[in-house]
Amino acid sequence: MSLLSKTKNLSPAYFGLVMATGIIAIAAHQQRWPFIAQTLFFISCVSWIILTFLYSYRALRFTKDFTEDLISHNKGPAFFTVVAGTGLVGSQLMVLYGYYWLAFIAWTLSLLLWALLTYTVFTALTVRRDKPTLDKGISGAWLLAVVATQAVAVLSAHLASQTSQPWRLELNFLALSMWLWGGMLYIWMMSLIFYRYTFFKFVPSDLAPPYWINMGAMAISTLAGSLLIINSPNAPFLESLAPFIKGFTIFYWATGSWWIPMLLILGVWRHIIKRFPLTYDPLYWGAVFPLGMYSASTYVMLQAMEFSFLYTLPTTFFYIALLVWGVTFTGLCRSLLRLRQKA
Q: Is 211 helix (H, G, I), strand (E, B) or coil?
């Protein structure tokens, strides 16, 4: 069996590698580690190119399997990693190098993918006849739709900061609209996920790594809100909404912060108390990303709000995220090596 034929079962969540690597590259830039930032940027871009080819090949060669995943309650939301990964490549281009037009291309692509996936996935999940029960059909992976929405908001805000009028106004308005929509979507989905948490039987296998997106979705919402606050002096409508944006940005950050101890406790329950094996899974990129995003978003929030008393948090979470990224990337390399040996 050739390596390309194995794309038949390629996980829709693999763009989480691009997401996790990209945001840690931005965090490294913030922490003044240019070599790490540039290395991770290179890895994220190469990963994006390779995965785009593999997903395109899978869609053309194994169309039935690809489509079944796309309209699946369990796998469909994972496709939103494509949107978030593309948006974060664009954000890296802006933050690390100031490549406006390349970032604009990434923004255009991420916006088109967001619209396509949002109205394809959720329409399909709504109209399909056979639907799983809530405890079997929903997980933290659904919040990737929130992450994708906020990734577009973040990149829109970055572009707006370097765009002259009149497009600056439109980009800031789009960023604000996506930020608000992402927040509403989180409230809808998190209500169902929390209900599933507390009122249905929960076993270790149910606690998949994407549950860390519970925190990551709030972290990227914090980043988008912080960028809107920074952009507000150049956008009158944002300036008039500044108290509202600041309040909700802190609300998002506080919610994300609440999730961290909870997820750690559940992780101890899963792997230590219940002895669930800790082996490499592409879904683990969904756990790496939130750690990097918490570092990057807190760093920008401190600039926007002047919360100097929280200055140690971005640095601490950067090193944690970098360590977890290294462990997960090692697992990926070993997995690919085994795959090659079996081919």
A: helix
Where helices occur in 200-241 by DSSP H, the ranges are: 213-231, 236-240
Could you give the domains of the chain? Answer: 4-342 (1.50.10.150)
State the DSSP code for 207. Answer: S
Closest CA relative to residue 179, chosen from 149, 159, 158, 144 = 149
Supply 8's token pair.
């038949």
Please write the tens of the pLDDT for every residue from 326-343. Answer: 999 998 888 888 777 665
**Cβ–Cβ contacts within 10 Å for residue 136, how many?**
13
Segment 192-218, tens digit of pLDDT: 999 998 898 888 877 777 788 999 999
Collect all residues with Cβ–Cβ distance below 8 Å to 140 and sequence separation of at least 6. 193, 208, 210, 211, 212, 213, 214, 286
pTM: 0.94
Which residue, 247, 237, 235, is CA-closest to 301? Answer: 247
CB 132 within 8 A of CB 187: no
The total of other beta-carbon atoms located within 10 Å of residue 3's CB is: 12
Nearest to 213 by CA among 77, 95, 305, 331: 77
Nearest to 174 by CA among 217, 237, 127: 237
* Residue carrying structure tokens 């008393």: 309
Pick from 80, 264, 104: which is nearest to 182 by CA?
80
